[in-house]
Specification:
It contains 15 helices and 16 strands. By secondary structure, it is α+β, with helices and mostly antiparallel strands. The chain has two domains: about 240 residues, 2-Layer Sandwich (BirA Bifunctional Protein, domain 2), CATH 3.30.930; about 90 residues, Anticodon-binding domain (Rossmann fold). The strands form three sheets. It has an eight-stranded mixed β-sheet with strand order 1-5-6-11-10-9-7-8. Helix 1 runs antiparallel to helix 5 and helix 5 packs parallel to helix 9. The longest helix is centred in the N-terminal third of the chain and has 20 residues. The radius of gyration is 28 Å and the shape is elongated. The two termini are about 50 Å apart. The chain binds adenosine monophosphate. The site of adenosine monophosphate has 17 residues, from strand 6, strand 10, strand 11 and helix 11.
């Protein structure tokens, strides 16, 4: 029986890979201008890392993680997000002792057992940026700015920025009290999950996707109305810096971002073009996480961008650059093929794209393949040419053909192909 891939876990085929590489290269360029360095973290972590950071009663930890015991019985999880791992690595390698290690980015796959649909997959890719040990509102504004600059560079259309403040433990207490009271009044209308959340982690009711709960949440008290003076002035600071950078925003008091570790400013970049999956990227401050995971008490902020959603939104007209010169060797007959085989390797060593046919097909069939591969030049080598000590070089754009002596042909081809670039 045919073995297919897993639902919601997709292949990225060669025709699409160019877009992915381009998006990654733009991220690397822009993020490094902002002082970010790449960090590569593992796909697998101990389950407790995510349970403790993301929060036991979040959808991700409760329902979506790929968790299994390994052969030693240790419970492991395929990472559902990157922040927890970057923080873990920062603590583990004592990077706080090195003042050049403050801003990180990482690119790679994440795993969540969600219901697959357009823009939502079980393996998906994120570009993450994290900043540690800086708590000035300027940093929050700068991180948001970097996210928007990146989306603009990719030409993602109609992006809007939504922001909110999740306060701090001080403002959460009175808020939680008032939210719990409200939820108590409407508890008979809540779904069974939210009945439970009401008692364990009432803020998570804001994540609920069940329609009656969504309706009730719209009427619920919001954290923004309970901010303490420090959080209020911090949020004012972020808004002021956003405005000074020319960034427009909408304040969305109902946006709580699905993970427990957030505090103060959170944000999402939204698009109207992806139906229900309208968030292209999002993030926020998570000042307590480092300490929760056993590290120093350092503030942090960051964001994650969903790459599949970016790819869906890329302008079809984007021209991804290919190698400008592509040579195809059309060899006719055994002897010629052997000679061509050698030329191909020599040219590849010198950084030239070369492809050839290994199946001794007709010249016509080989020319067709050259065309499909987008060859700019074809070198035709047949017995007649070999006898004369030449090969024929055809320029596919101009259809001009000329004979080139086999003696010194590699150097000659290099010169022609490079100068035509
Ligand atoms: P989150 O880590 O949930 O804040 O998500 C950050 C970004 O990752 C979102 O804005 C999406 O663009 C993307 N994302 C999250 N979950 C998925 C998923 N299941 N499939 C595709 N993209 C996702």
């Amino acid at each position: 029986m045919l073995i297919t891939g897993i639902k919601g876990i997709n292949d990225i085929l060669p025709d699409d890979v160019g877009k992915w590489q381009w998006v990654e290269s733009v991220a690397r360029r822009i993020f490094s201008n902002f002082g970010f360095q790449e960090i590569r973290i593992p796909l697998l972590e101990k389950t407790e890392l995510f349970a403790r950071s993301i929060g036991e009663s979040t959808d991700i930890v409760e329902k979506e993680m790929y968790t299994f015991p390994d052969r030693n019985g240790q419970l492991l999880t395929l990472r559902p997000e990157a922040t927890a791992s970057v923080v873990r690595a920062f603590i583990q390698h004592r990077l706080h002792l090195n003042p050049t290690m403050r801003k990180f980015y990482t690119i790679g796959p994440m795993f969540r057992h969600e219901r697959p649909q357009k823009g939502r997959y079980r393996q998906f890719h994120q570009i993450n940026a994290e900043v540690f040990a800086m708590d000035d509102p300027m940093v929050d504004a700068e991180v948001i700015y970097m996210l928007l600059v990146f989306l603009e560079e990719l030409n993602i259309p109609d992006v809007t920025l939504h922001i909110n403040s999740m306060g701090c433990p001080d403002c959460r207490q009175p808020f939680r009290k008032s939210l719990t009271e409200y939820l108590g009044r409407v508890s008979d209308k809540l779904c069974s999950d939210c009945q439970r959340r009401r008692l364990t982690n009432p803020l998570r009711i804001f994540d609920c996707k069940v329609e009656p709960c969504k309706q009730l949440v719209r009427e619920a008290p919001v954290l923004l109305d309970y901010l303490c003076n420090d959080c209020l002035s911090n949020f004012e600071g972020v808004k002021e810096h956003l405005t000074s950078l020319g960034i427009g925003y909408t304040i969305d008091p109902h946006m709580v971002r699905g993970l427990d570790y957030y505090n103060r400013t959170t944000f999402e970049a939204l698009t109207p073009h992806l139906g229900a999956q309208n968030a292209v990227g999002g993030g926020g401050r998570y000042d307590g996480l480092m300490e929760t995971l056993g590290g120093p008490d350092l503030p942090a902020t960051g964001f994650a961008i969903g790459m599949e959603r970016l790819i869906l939104l890329l302008d079809e007209k984007i021209e991804i650059e290919k190698d400008s010169n592509r040579l195809f060797l059309a060899c006719l007959g055994n002897e010629c093929q052997k000679r061509g085989f050698q030329f191909a390797q020599q040219l590849r060593l010198r950084n030239i794209f070369v492809e050839m046919d290994y199946e001794s097909r007709s010249l016509k069939a080989q020319m067709r393949r050259a065309d499909k591969l987008g060859a700019t030049h074809v070198l035709i080598l047949g017995d007649d040419e070999l006898a004369k000590g030449v090969a024929t070089l055809r320029n596919m754009e101009t259809s001009v053909q000329e004979d080139i002596p086999l003696e010194g042909i590699v150097e000659e081809l290099l010169q022609r192909l490079r100068s035509a670039m």
